[in-house]
Amino acid sequence: MVTSTSIGSITWSDHADITLQITLPNMAKTWSWRLNPTLLHNPNIKEAIKDYFDLNKDSVSTKSSLWAAHKTVLRGILITLASNYPGFALLEQTLTELRTLETKLKSNPTPELNVNISKYQNTIKEFMAKDSIKVLQWTWQLYYETSNKADTLLLAHKLKRR
Length: 162
Hints:
Blueprint (H helix, E strand, L loop, with lengths): L1 E6 L10 E5 L20 H14 L6 H22 L2 H21 L3 H36 L6 H9 L1
Antiparallel strand pairs: 1-2
Helix pairs in contact: 1-2, 3-4
């Protein structure tokens, strides 16, 4: 259910922020989509951008309309890619396979099992490193956005800890 909508000002750039507040049943926390920068390394993104402009360059009267629509389409593509990312399901599967190999290693130690276990351990380490980088980037962004504002979440959090 839509609670309220608003269009912000465009005083500082050519973009206006749009706010849509909705109430979802059984949802306790508010959520906002944030770009996962690792998705930009996906080769399909460049193709999607090129295809979009090739297909739509003659369909609109102004380039600004084409650009504004492109941002929306690109965001939809990025959300689709993010939702199809295997992420934690792949991690769980890798952990399960690692546990199975470790159990086999205890009963019958072989060099091949050691090599396979090392591969699974490296896969898990890579996943955790990527996840850590993503969390750090979002933390840096939060501190950058709220660093000079006195009424921010960070100030309240710091004061609450005291």
